[in-house]
């Protein structure tokens, strides 16, 4: 069982798709809400790849970037396609959705 922790601001933003996926899976997760003053201090920002949130923690594993997080969660729960063609279509939809925001 995964013990996901989402580290993000108190907004929907780039992390909402992950929250929706986890909710749909019935997979519990915790939230570590980051205030803007805390983010501006820079300590957490230095720990994040590309200096950006969201951040997903799964035990000792940490992952940044919303699309990478979505794919990671999907793969962990058998939702990222059964063959390369299905995976490619899923990637196309996820990446295409990000272009419209």
Give the overall shape. Answer: globular
Order of helices and strands: EHEHHEEHH
Number of helices: 5
Note the quaternary state here: single chain
- Major beta sheet, specifics? 4 strands, mixed
Name the beta content range. Answer: 15-25%
Radius of gyration: 14 Å
Q: Can you list the strand order of the major beta sheet?
A: 2-1-3-4
Task: Describe the model.
The protein contains five helices and four strands, in the order E-H-E-H-H-E-E-H-H. It has helices spanning 16-25, 36-41, 43-47, 66-76, 84-99, and strands at 4-8, 29-33, 55-58, 61-64. It has a four-stranded mixed beta sheet, with helices on one face. The mean pLDDT is 91.
What topology emerges from the helices and strands here?
Blueprint (H helix, E strand, L loop, with lengths): L3 E5 L7 H10 L3 E5 L2 H6 L1 H5 L7 E4 L2 E4 L1 H11 L7 H16 L2
Parallel strand pairs: 1-2
Antiparallel strand pairs: 1-3, 3-4
Helix pairs in contact: 1-4
Task: Give a brief rundown of this model.
It contains 5 helices and 4 strands. With 101 residues, it is of the alpha+beta class.
């Amino acid at each position: 069982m995964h013990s996901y922790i989402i580290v993000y601001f108190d907004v929907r933003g780039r992390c909402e798709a992950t929250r929706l996926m986890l909710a749909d899976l019935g997979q519990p997760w915790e939230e570590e809400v980051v205030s803007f003053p805390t983010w501006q201090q820079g300590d957490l920002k230095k720990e994040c790849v590309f200096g950006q949130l969201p951040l997903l923690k799964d035990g000792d594993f940490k992952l940044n970037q919303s699309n990478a997080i979505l794919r990671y969660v999907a793969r962990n729960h058998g939702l990222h396609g059964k063959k390369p063609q299905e995976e490619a279509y899923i990637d196309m939809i996820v990446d295409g959705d990000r272009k419209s925001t």
